[in-house]
Amino acid sequence: MTKEELVELREMEAAMHQVKPCDEKWEFYYDETGNCRKFRLKEGGDFNNHDALSRYFILGGLVFDSKDDALSSNPQALISSLGLQANVTELKSHHLCPTDWSFEYFIRQDRVTKVVHWIFNSKANVQYSVENNLYYALVDIVDSLNKPEMGEMLFSLKDALYRAAKAHLEDFALFLSNYGFPDITQTENFWLDLTNTLDDIAREDDSFRDDSWFSILRTMVKDNARHPAQQENVLIMDNERFELQDTYVPFYMRPCYTFLYAHHNFDEEKQIIPQMSEFALNNYCFVDSVNEPLIQVSDCFVSILSKILFFFDSKSFSEIEEYSKNMDAVSKQNFRTMFSLIARADAKHKFLIHNANAISVLADHEKKWDVVVG
Q1: What's the CA gap between 297 and 42, in Å, rounded?
Q2: Which residues neighbour 172 within 8 Å (Cβ) at sequence distance 6 or greater?
Q3: Where along the chain do its domains lie?
Q4: CATH 3.40.390 for domain 25-36+52-133+248-373
Q5: What is the chain's percent helix, strand, coil content, to nearest 5?
Q6: How far is residue 292's CA from residue 64's CA, in Å, rounded to a whole number?
Q7: Which of 17-31, 57-71, 135-149, 179-193 shows the lowest per-residue confidence on average (mean pLDDT)?
Q8: Measuring CA to CA, which residue among 297, 303, 310 is closest to residue 361?
Q9: How far, in Å, CA of 254 to CA of 352, rounded?
C-alpha cells in the first residue's frame, strides 16, 4: 500500500470506531510473545502447532508522550533492583520467574511486582495488539458472505463461527483441510458443505441448537450456498494451501499508520525485518533489545499479560472465583496494577489496545478481570 492509501485506511478505521485520529508524536517500544511462525492445517484435519490454538500472539509494550520522557524514565534502575545474576546482560521475561512454576506462583513474585509498579509509576502507558490465531484464520469466511445486512452483526457472526469451530475443532479442521482452506477452488461445494457442517453442529450440540447468532449465521451461509452468483470468494481463494497464518507483519504495520506521527521502536525480529522492507512509512526502526532497556521492560509486560490471559482461558469462571477467594494480597495487587495500566491506556486513546479476538472471549476475560481485581 502507498502512504496515501495507509493514511486513508487510518482515517477510515478511526471513523469506524468513532475516534479522532491520533496525531501525537509519541515514542513506542515493542516486543512480542506467542509468535508461532507458521500456523497451518494438515491434511486430514490436524494443526501443525497446537500451542497456537491456546496461546495468543501479542505485540506491545510501552509508549511515552515524548522521546525525552522515554530517555528520562531510567529503566536501568528497575533492572538493577531485580537482583539478576551478574552475568545477565539483558532482562528477559523468563528472569521474572522460573518457567516451570505455575501461574499462581508467578503472579506473586517480587520481580513481577517491581515491573508492573515501575511501569505504573513511570510516565509510560502500555499498548498492545492481541491476536487469537484460530479466530483470525476463520474471519475471512464470514467476510466472504457478502451480505450488506450484516452491518453491526458482523462481529457476532464471526464469534458464532469461532465458537462452533472451537467446540468441534477436529471435525471443523477436517472440513477445512478437505478444501485446502484458505485456497479454495471448489467454492460452490465449499459453501454447501459448510451449510451441512453447521447444520450437523446444531443438530448434535444443544448449546448451538438455540443459539440465535449461530442460527443467523447458518441462514446466511445456507443462502450463500443457494446463490453462487452472489458469492464473494476473493478472501478464501488464491492463498497458500493450508496456510492459516504465515506472518504477523500486519500487526507491526498497524500501529505505524494508526499513530502516524509517532516513532515506533521494535525489537529485532529476523523474520519480520525483510517483510517490512517495502512498507511505505519510515516512522519505525528495529533495535537490538540488548541496547534498549525499554524494549526489555516491554518484553516483561507482554509476557505478564500473556500469562494472565492464558490463565483466564484455562480456568472456568467458577474456578477463577474460587482462586480469587483465596488469593494473597501481593497477587491481588499485581492484578489490580495490570488492570489499571490497561484501563489507563484505553482512556488515553482507544487504539492503544487492539484485540483481534472473538467477542465472547473478550467478554469472558472482562468478567474474570472483574473477579480478580474486585
Answers
A1: 37
A2: 164, 165, 197
A3: 25-36+52-133+248-373, 145-232
A4: no
A5: 60, 10, 30
A6: 15
A7: 135-149
A8: 310
A9: 11
Inter-CA distances, 234 with 53, 183, 185, 237, Å? 25, 10, 11, 5
Q: Could you tell me if 27 and 17 are in contact, meaning their C-beta atoms sit under 8 angstroms apart?
A: no
Among residues of the chain, what percentage have pLDDT more than 70?
100
Nearest alpha-carbon partner for 312 in 321, 301, 320, 323: 320
Q: Are the CB atoms for 111 and 97 separated by under 8 Å?
A: yes
Furthest CA-CA distance within the chain: 68
Long-range contacts of 239-243 (CB under 8 A, 24+ apart): 239/182, 239/183, 240/182, 240/183, 241/180, 241/183, 242/40, 242/41, 242/42, 242/43, 242/177, 242/180, 242/181, 242/183, 243/38, 243/40, 243/182, 243/183
Q: Cβ distance 57 to 252 under 8 Å?
A: no
pLDDT tens sequence across 238-285: 999 999 999 999 999 999 999 999 999 999 999 999 999 999 999 999
Q: Which amino acid is at 62?
A: L
The DSSP string of 101-127 is S-HHHHTT-HHHHHHHHHHHHSS-EEE
CA 49 to chain centre: 17
Angle 299-273-14 from CA coordinates, rounded to 5°: 75
Give the pLDDT confidence score for residue 215 in this predicted structure: 97
pTM, rounded to two decimals: 0.96
